[in-house]
């Protein structure tokens, strides 16, 4: 099911006793990281309540074609365009017939007509209805005309007491088959944490110590990791850029908060990329009230070292594959190799910040990817492009390591 992460699944439910299994199917899709929107026919609501599906999918359930309220939220054409895959489970004989006839007499058939997404059906009906030549012709027509995939049906005892083909496949089987419709990407099924942006270390209620990090590189890496099939958690200091779609973002201010957010759920994290510009030091104490200007010409600040987030992650039990950044002004590779060993990292993305027009707070970067036994230079390019190249290479190293460690 690992290919379902970040995929948009439109789950259609038609009237049939198997509709109760769609609740579990929705849960499985969500657990695999998919975004699920449920569409129910009126008959489906006789078997299972929309509220159950709403709670499990985390999204409003779509019920009617011409409902002004629903159309004001996500209209049916928008919903049709939104889907990466449409799965109708259970698909009744009546629904299959209406779909084969090209009808658009309810929301679900209309969506199937309006969408370019692949359509999969999980038939569920009495064995005689399934065997009926008219149903079989409808199925053949749907396969031949629009490439509809048919999942099942299974053979076995039916709710009506008959035995034969017509049982809806089990939710686990359906989720696996849905996952198989997508290609495996470099980070399919992986959970990736990325720190980004600066930290702010408070001096008093109105002042702080920080730096000029824009967060652009970390945010571009988050979008690239998402596109590579990963479930992404972006742990971000204050920046002024938008969080990429389908990326979970935890907003933090201080290094301590960034560390806490990085350690949360770390056991489930496969890859940790530290792109944040963490303040090395913070004030020993934060003044309760605004610090007043005094008569003295010189003011001394007492600072204490911040925790090293990436080194803490790399030293943790069951550590994820850990990647750090190194901004250097000379001997870039030598310093990166030293940092790699000192912080116990798997890879370091090193860049020469003395070079004009790249790195900190600019749109472009040029880096060298340094591993224990490898050095690879990636020439100057836009951060988005570089992020994609980096994610591909990091994924390759991660997958190679996973292979050797079994
Ligand atoms: O030691 P230096 O700051 O050069 O290391 C840079 C790398 O370490 C970056 O990946 C940065 O995100 C990470 N780092 C960290 N916590 C700190 C300092 C740096 O995670 N306190």
TrEMBL record:
Q: Which cofactor does it need?
A: FMN; Mg(2+)
**EC no.?**
4.1.1.36, 6.3.2.5
Q: Which residues form the active site?
A: 160
Chain residue ranges for the region called Phosphopantothenoylcysteine decarboxylase: 1-191
Q: Where is this region: Phosphopantothenate--cysteine ligase?
A: 192-406
Catalyzed reactions: (R)-4'-phosphopantothenate + L-cysteine + CTP = N-[(R)-4-phosphopantothenoyl]-L-cysteine + CMP + diphosphate + H(+); N-[(R)-4-phosphopantothenoyl]-L-cysteine + H(+) = (R)-4'-phosphopantetheine + CO2
Quote the record's cofactor note: Binds 1 FMN per subunit.
Identify the pathway. Answer: Cofactor biosynthesis; coenzyme A biosynthesis; CoA from (R)-pantothenate: step 3/5; Cofactor biosynthesis; coenzyme A biosynthesis; CoA from (R)-pantothenate: step 2/5
Q: Which InterPro entries match?
A: CoaB-like_sf, CoaBC, DNA/pantothenate-metab_flavo_C, Flavin_trans-like, Flavoprotein
PANTHER family cross-referenced by the UniProt entry: HOMO-OLIGOMERIC FLAVIN CONTAINING CYS DECARBOXYLASE FAMILY, PHOSPHOPANTOTHENOYLCYSTEINE DECARBOXYLASE
* Protein name as catalogued: Coenzyme A biosynthesis bifunctional protein CoaBC
Protein source organism: Marinobacterium zhoushanense
Gene designation:
coaBC
């Amino acid at each position: 099911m690992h290919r379902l992460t970040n995929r948009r699944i439109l789950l259609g439910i038609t009237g049939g006793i198997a509709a109760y299994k769609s609740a579990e199917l929705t849960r499985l899709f969500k657990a695999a990281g998919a975004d699920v929107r449920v569409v129910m026919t009126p008959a489906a609501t006789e078997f299972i309540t929309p509220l159950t599906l709403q709670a499990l999918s985390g999204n409003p359930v779509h019920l009617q074609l011409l409902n002004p309220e629903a159309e004001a939220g996500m209209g049916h054409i928008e919903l049709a365009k939104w889907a990466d895959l449409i799965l109708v489970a259970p698909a009744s004989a009546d629904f299959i017939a209406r779909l084969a006839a090209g009808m658009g007499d309810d929301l679900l058939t209309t969506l199937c007509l309006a969408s370019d997404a692949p359509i999969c059906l999980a038939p569920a009906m009495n064995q005689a209805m399934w065997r009926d030549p008219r149903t079989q012709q409808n199925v053949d027509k749907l396969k031949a005309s629009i490439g509809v995939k048919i999942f099942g049906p299974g053979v076995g005892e039916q709710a009506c007491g008959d035995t034969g083909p017509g049982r809806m496949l089990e939710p686990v089987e359906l989720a696996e088959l849905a996952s198989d419709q997508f290609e495996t990407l470099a980070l399919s099924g992986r959970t990736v944490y990325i720190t980004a942006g600066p930290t702010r270390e408070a001096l008093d209620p109105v002042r702080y110590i920080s730096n000029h990090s824009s967060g652009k590189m970390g945010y571009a890496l988050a979008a690239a990791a998402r596109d590579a099939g990963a479930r992404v958690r972006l742990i971000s200091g204050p920046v002024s850029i938008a969080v990429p779609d389908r990326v979970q973002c935890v907003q933090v201010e201080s290094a301590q908060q960034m560390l806490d957010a990085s350690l949360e759920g770390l056991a489930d994290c496969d890859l940790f990329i530290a792109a944040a510009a963490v303040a090395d030091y913070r004030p020993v104490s934060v003044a309760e009230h605004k610090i007043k200007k005094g008569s003295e010409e010189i003011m001394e600040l007492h600072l204490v070292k911040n925790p090293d987030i990436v080194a803490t992650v790399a030293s943790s039990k069951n550590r994820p594959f850990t990647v750090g950044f190194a901004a250097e002004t000379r001997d870039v590779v030598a310093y990166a190799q030293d940092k790699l060993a000192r912080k116990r990292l798997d890879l370091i993305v090193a860049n020469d910040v003395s070079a004009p027009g790249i790195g900190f707070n600019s749109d472009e970067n040029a880096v060298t990817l340094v591993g224990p036994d490898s050095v690879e230079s990636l020439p100057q390019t836009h951060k988005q492009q570089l992020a994609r190249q980096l994610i591909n290479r990091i994924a390759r190293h991660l997958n190679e390591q996973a292979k050797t460690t079994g």
